[in-house]
Write a structure and sequence with these properties.
A: 683 residues; 6-stranded mixed sheet; 29% helix; 27% strand; B: 156 residues; alpha+beta; Ubiquitin-like (UB roll); 2 domains; 5-stranded mixed sheet; 5 helices; 5 strands; globular
Chain lengths: 683, 156
């Protein structure tokens, strides 16, 4: 790396939207709803505002007062009714943040309370924003057979909250009614589209400048749209530059909540433990304005049986509207909740079939050639056997599992022998897929263009990649193939005037799709070079596979699936219910690892996130450093192509920890987070 | 409220609301202070308060009267900063733009107080900033290289 650039970076000279302030810039303060639901009666102010200070309401918006994601929308500013606490109602704009705080006190807001929507409940049917029902077979023939073992259970997961930074500050520079919006986003196209609609402006008058965005941004793809729209609106009305800076009290903008998930499972197994029929009924909490309902519900439907083979399914999934903040879209969709439940349920099924969890899993694992219920065949071997071997042997899983089970058996026989501490060990499996399931034109596409001219190679990306190190990988790849100095390779993000609809840079699209497109473009340019005159131009556009029928749920939507396995051993102190994790073994099959150090740090962060989700705190965990952690990580590289990694750990680790707790406490776990209150909670 | 303090060795008078967090005031003065989560989790707003690493988002502005605050701008001319720069370059460290100033300051505090820090001291410094942009062994390596640079500079 260039020493001067590194020096600037270390000294904090790399600019972010909030760094470029001037005396003439206007700040924005949100006026938000203090209550959950109601109709706005009055919005006025007791004293006249000083010069240069003003209030923007929904009625002042020149265009459409909507933030639209194609798959769900919500109003930028509440007009007549509020539907969740802290919903933005108006913007207070002025040159001094301190004065804005004082003026906020003088704004009189009168809201008549209204009845709130029912709380999240799996049996709630009325407040559904989207639902999907799939039935590949009926269980009628199995009901009366005596040799069939039926198991049913209910699980409820409270959503995780991602700690995401840097905060999504935004700044809008008004240059003769051309709006340059500076923001940290991984989805510039959606910002451009929404600002155009909001201000009724042509394409050319809105320009987006993206700032570096690390993988923390994965969890909040819609927040920058809101903050950028606030800025653009204030800038349009005031005709000045505006900055929207998130304050610590604007908790919602820091970390979007992930809603609750309720899952009911009912399964039939034969005496050999083979899964014959599976019924899944689930409900997702979408908040007041459910976003990506279809994507989230369908994604869960697709992975109904997790990593196990079962073609006889009855699925009913829905998204429920509640009186809470809109929930976000996370890199794993909501798969972590579903796969955790399936793994917990598989333990219960194994127990009913009088098998060990490992035996049950081995019998039911999905294998190459097995068909999905959508009609597609699994073309590549998922190497789940290898994964199991790689975690079971070093952790001595089988011996320890039997020993702890025997201990539990003795305790059940004579409860007076209950020791102060007991141990548990568990194995879990999971998978993840990249990219969107939907075929909507502005969510799944991604275009890469590359130009080779006398100045060097210029690569235009549709959005900033999830990790800064990817630039390094791509530039060294191009440098090697085209014999160009790395300093002559530059990356432009979302620069073209006429941009196509492009999806966000999440769901591991950087390494699975963009990387592949860049590779193809480089190869094409290498072929054309020295045969055609400069400049050479090459472009690649990714679109959702035609093998997938979105509406009828037929075919296979994913190019690659990543697989993972984890074994967790822990000790439970019955006196104070404290949990001491003793060993974590994780093996991931996520294709070619482009940069091992980055992959390890992504996993490291995911472990912290998982533990935060399970225990609602990170007190017993230091996320820094493998040396201080009891975890062993291994990557199995069975494919030459890079595959998805984000969210994979969240899909396997919570299940393993919860199962280990279940063994140590002799109580099946049904609720997340794992707190003493939830242990005793009745289903 | 106007408060007198020593910012990067200079005597300064800063005016701001008393209840603001120190990070919110400092970000207007110094570009090396990046307010992150605002809850003392991420560590991006780390400063040296009287020589000790502190999350400035957790310190109210009124409480720093007459205290000495050092941000990354205050160390840019020091020899230790050039040791860190060389060490990071040797380790081929590519940390993210957002945590880089805080990370540098944390390295500085370690190198300043110890010639041969033990593992616990290093882990303490590394765990003060929760950014996952870089693999921990790489950061460890950068610290060792920086210590080596410091040793070479002092002892030839």
């Amino acid at each position: 790396m260039n020493e001067r650039y590194l020096k600037d970076k270390l000294l904090g000279k790399i600019r972010y939207p909030q760094n470029n302030t001037s005396k003439k810039i206007l700040y924005i303060k949100l006026i938000c709803s203090p209550i959950e639901r109601g109709s706005i009666e009055e919005l006025s102010w007791t004293e006249p505002f000083p010069k240069d200070y003003f209030l923007i309401k929904a009625k002042d918006i020149p265009g459409k007062n909507t933030i639209d994601f194609g798959d769900g929308s919500f109003p930028l500013l509440a007009d007549e009714e509020v539907y969740y606490p802290y919903q933005p109602i108006a913007l207070l704009v002025g040159p001094a943040p301190q004065v804005l705080k004082e003026l906020e006190e003088t704004v009189k807001l009168k809201i008549n309370k209204k009845e709130i929507l029912p709380e999240f409940n799996i049996s709630e049917q009325e407040q559904c924003s989207y639902q999907r029902e799939i039935r590949t077979s009926s269980s009628d023939g199995l009901e009366n057979k005596s040799e069939i073992i039926w198991v049913e259970d209910y699980f409820e997961m409270e959503g995780q909250q991602h700690s995401s930074f840097p905060p999504a500050h935004s700044r809008c520079q008004n240059e003769g009614m051309v709006f340059n919006i500076h923001c940290i986003t991984q989805w510039p196209w959606i910002i451009k589209k929404n600002v155009q609609q909001l201000l009724k402006l042509p394409k050319k008058m809105v320009k987006i400048r993206c700032y570096p965005c690390e993988n923390h941004q994965e969890s909040k793809i819609f927040h920058p749209v809101q903050t950028a729209s606030f800025c653009a609106l204030a800038s349009f009305i005031s005709k000045k530059n505006c900055l929207f800076q998130i304050n610590p009290e604007d908790n919602y903008f820091y970390a979007p909540p992930k809603g609750k998930v309720g899952i009911y499972l009912k399964a039939a197994c034969n005496h050999r433990g083979e899964l014959l029929h599976l019924k899944l009924d689930f409900s997702l909490e979408g908040g007041a304005y459910p976003l990506w309902s279809k994507e989230r519900v369908d994604r869960m439907c697709f992975f109904t049986s997790g990593v196990y083979h079962c073609r006889n399914l009855e699925i009913h999934g829905k998204m429920q509207r509640t009186t809470s903040m809109p929930t976000g879209l996370f890199p794993d969709g909501d798969l972590s909740s579903l796969l955790t439940s399936i793994e917990l349920f598989s333990n219960i099924m194994a127990e009913e079939c009088k098998m060990t969890p490992l035996e049950w899993k081995t019998v039911n694992l999905i294998k190459r050639g097995n068909g999905w219920f959508t009609g597609a065949l699994l073309a590549r071997n998922p190497s789940l056997d290898e994964l199991i071997k790689a975690v079971v042997e070093p952790s001595d899983y089988q011996r320890k599992y039997s020993a702890y089970q025997y201990q539990n058996h003795l305790i059940k026989k004579d409860s007076s022998k209950k020791p102060q501490k007991s141990k548990g060990i568990a194995l879990s499996l999971g998978c993840i897929a990249n990219n969107f399931l939907t075929q909507q034109r502005d969510q799944s596409p991604a275009t890469i263009s590359m130009t080779l001219d006398q100045q060097g190679l210029s690569i235009e990306l549709p959005a900033p990649p999830g990790h800064g190190q990817l630039y390094k990988i791509w530039s060294s790849m191009a440098s090697e193939a085209l014999s160009i100095d790395e300093n002559n390779i530059r990356f432009d993000i979302y620069k073209s005037e006429e941009n196509n609809p492009e999806g966000p840079s999440c769901f591991s699209r950087n390494v699975t799709i963009i990387h592949h497109q860049i590779k193809q473009c480089i190869n094409q340019i290498a072929k054309k070079r020295f045969r055609e005159p400069l400049p050479l131009f090459e472009t690649r556009r990714f679109r959702r596979s035609r093998n997938w029928d979105d509406d009828n749920f037929k075919g296979h939507p994913y190019q690659h699936l990543s697989w993972g396995a984890a074994v967790v051993e822990l000790e439970l102190n019955h006196e104070d219910n404290s949990i001491n994790i003793q060993q974590i073994y994780i093996v991931l099959e996520s294709g070619k690892i482009l940069l091992p150090s980055v992959a390890s740090s992504v996993v490291n962060q995911a472990i912290g996130q998982s533990l935060q989700w399970i225990f609602k705190s990170t007190e017993n965990y230091n996320p820094m450093g493998e040396n201080t952690l009891p975890f062993n990580l291994q990557f199995l590289e069975t494919s030459k192509e890079p595959k998805a990694l984000d969210g994979l750990v969240q899909n396997i680790l919570p299940a393993a920890i919860m199962q280990a707790i279940a063994q140590a406490s002799c109580k099946n776990q049904h609720f997340l987070p794992v707190t003493p209150g939830n242990w005793e909670r009745k289903k | 409220m106007t408060i007198e303090l020593f910012l990067n060795g200079e005597h300064k008078k800063l005016t701001a609301q008393a209840d603001l967090a120190l990070s919110q005031v400092l970000q207007l003065e110094c570009r090396g202070v990046n307010p992150g989560c605002g809850k003392g989790y991420c560590g991006c707003c780390t400063v040296l308060l009287n020589g000790k690493l502190t999350y400035s988002c957790q310190i109210p502005f009124f409480s720093v009267k007459n205290q000495s605050i050092m941000t990354v701008e205050g160390i840019q001319t020091s020899n230790i900063f050039s040791d860190i720069l060389k060490g990071m370059k040797r380790a081929k460290l590519d940390i993210c733009d957002y945590c880089a100033p805080a990370r540098t300051l944390s390295f500085y505090s370690l190198l300043k107080r110890a010639d041969r820090p033990n593992n616990q001291e290093i882990q303490e410094v590394l765990s003060s900033i929760h950014c996952s942009c870089t693999h921990i062994p790489l950061l460890n390596q950068a610290i060792f290289y920086s210590l080596e640079e410091k040793y070479t500079r002092l002892h030839g």
